[in-house]
Design goal:
Pathway: Protein biosynthesis; polypeptide chain elongation. It contains no helices and 15 strands. The chain has strands spanning about 1-5, 10-20, 25-35, 40-45, 50, 55-65, 70-75, 80-85, 100-105, 110-115, 120-125, 140-145, 150-155, 160-165, 170-175. The chain has a five-stranded antiparallel β-sheet with strand order 4-3-2-1-5, with no helix packed on it. The chain has a five-stranded antiparallel β-sheet with strand order 8-7-6-9-10, with no helix packed on it. It has a five-stranded antiparallel β-sheet with strand order 13-12-11-14-15, with no helix packed on it. The radius of gyration is 21 Å and the shape is flat. The two termini are about 35 Å apart.
Length: about 180
């Protein structure tokens, strides 16, 4: 959910309710700025009004990066838009031709952010060879993937293999066969 608060747009990261026997219930939320990079916590009394913003999620395809920014194409109308890097959740994991979700504010028809799928499959382009026998603990080594990002992977992952990465945390999930 995205809400308007003090003239800025925030997405709700986490929320909860505090009830006490003597006082009225309060609702709290951790908010992350959509149009700014701030993270705040806000508490409302019961009965306070919040102003949700209607957001539409559309499927776009990543095309390329140039001087204007990252270029995406609408999968339905084939219209192209260029967005700046700060609007993209994990730009280091973007691959050409990859499908992403673009959140669009329905009031102003402006793109607000770009979300990659939770997990993506990439090819390891460079990795140091692992040392056999050093597997008593979960030892990780750096590996470069096809998008240019560096990910820490287990010792058994080698160059040319497909791996699944969590785009939210940037961590290795599993090897894909």
């Amino acid at each position: 959910m995205i809400i308007k608060l003090d003239g800025s747009l925030y997405t709700v990261v986490e929320f909860g309710e505090n009830k006490t026997a003597r006082a009225a219930a309060k609702v709290w939320a951790k908010l992350k700025g959509v149009d700014n990079s701030r993270s705040i916590e806000k508490t409302w009394n019961s009965g306070d009004t919040i102003f949700p913003v209607r957001v539409e999620r559309k499927a776009y395809q990543y095309l390329y990066k140039d001087d204007t920014g990252y270029n995406f194409m609408d999968n339905e109308t084939f219209e192209q838009i260029a967005l700046q890097e700060h609007l993209i959740d994990a730009p280091q994991f973007l691959k050409e031709g990859q499908e992403v979700s673009v959140l669009i504010n329905t009031e102003s028809e402006q793109p607000m952010s770009v979300e990659l799928p939770d997990k993506i499959v990439v090819t390891v382009t460079y990795s140091e060879p692992g040392v056999k026998g050093d597997t008593a603990t979960r030892t990780l080594k750096p590996a470069t993937v096809e998008t240019g990002a560096t990910v820490h992977v287990p010792l058994f992952v080698n160059e040319g293999e497909l791996i699944r990465i969590n785009t939210k945390t940037g961590e290795y999930v599993e090897r894909v066969k």
